[in-house]
TrEMBL record:
<dbReference type="InterPro" id="IPR006311">
    <property type="entry name" value="TAT_signal"/>
</dbReference>
<keyword id="KW-0812">Transmembrane</keyword>
<keyword id="KW-0560">Oxidoreductase</keyword>
<keyword id="KW-0001">2Fe-2S</keyword>
<keyword id="KW-1133">Transmembrane helix</keyword>
<comment type="similarity">
    <text>Belongs to the Rieske iron-sulfur protein family.</text>
</comment>
<keyword id="KW-0411">Iron-sulfur</keyword>
<keyword id="KW-0408">Iron</keyword>
<dbReference type="InterPro" id="IPR019470">
    <property type="entry name" value="Ubiq_cytC_Rdtase_Fe-S_su_TAT"/>
</dbReference>
<dbReference type="GO" id="GO:0016020">
    <property type="term" value="C:membrane"/>
</dbReference>
<dbReference type="InterPro" id="IPR014349">
    <property type="entry name" value="Rieske_Fe-S_prot"/>
</dbReference>
<protein>
    <submittedName>
        <fullName>Ubiquinol-Cytochrome c reductase, iron-sulfur subunit</fullName>
        <ecNumber>1.10.2.2</ecNumber>
    </submittedName>
</protein>
<keyword id="KW-1015">Disulfide bond</keyword>
<dbReference type="InterPro" id="IPR017941">
    <property type="entry name" value="Rieske_2Fe-2S"/>
</dbReference>
<dbReference type="Pfam" id="PF10399">
    <property type="entry name" value="UCR_Fe-S_N"/>
</dbReference>
<dbReference type="Pfam" id="PF00355">
    <property type="entry name" value="Rieske"/>
</dbReference>
<dbReference type="GO" id="GO:0016491">
    <property type="term" value="F:oxidoreductase activity"/>
</dbReference>
Length: 164
């Protein structure tokens, strides 16, 4: 058996193919690192909050992914919320108006959220009751662990509310 000698043309072809493969690998790695979430974003992916710290009629604001989340412990005079209640007595909604993205203010005397930009109003359940907002305040994904709510994870309670 005679050994075949590699021609110069074949050698250059293999060398260029190898360099192209290394370059393609470097480009793919750079793309992966660009698309990977930053550590700050990963850290805010889930937020835990103890619901038992909220008194009846009180509202707490929690930051989740840089957005405000309103947690309101409703009282009996605020009425019931069909398909928008967490743990039987809490309203948990993103604090961003569904009209133009403003942050509504809670008015405890009237028991409503009022959006100062265009006069939109939401009741204690987060349902739009007046003005230009096209839909109720959004409910963030959550999971319940006893009296602790974990924002950012879809638990069975959240899926039940959404499927409603």
């Amino acid at each position: 058996m005679a050994e075949e000698k590699m021609s110069r043309r074949d050698f250059l072809l293999y060398a260029m193919g190898g360099w192209a493969a290394v370059g393609a690998g470097a480009v793919l790695y750079a793309m992966y690192k660009t698309w990977e979430p930053l550590p700050e974003v990963k850290a805010q992916a889930t937020v835990k909050f103890d619901l038992s710290t909220v008194q009846p009629g009180e509202i707490k604001v929690v930051s989740w992914r840089g957005k405000p989340v309103f947690i309101l412990r409703r009282t009996s005079d605020m009425g019931g919320c069909d398909k928008r209640t967490v743990a039987g007595e809490y309203t948990v909604v993103l604090g961003i108006c569904t009209h133009l993205g403003c942050i509504p203010n809670w008015i405890p005397e009237e028991k409503v959220w009022h959006c100062p930009c265009h006069g939109g109003r939401y009741d204690a359940c987060g349902k739009n009751i007046f003005g230009p907002p096209p839909r109720p305040l959004d409910i963030p994904p959550f999971k319940l662990e006893g009296t602790t709510i974990v924002l950012g994870e879809e638990g069975p309670e959240y899926k039940k509310l959404i499927q409603g």
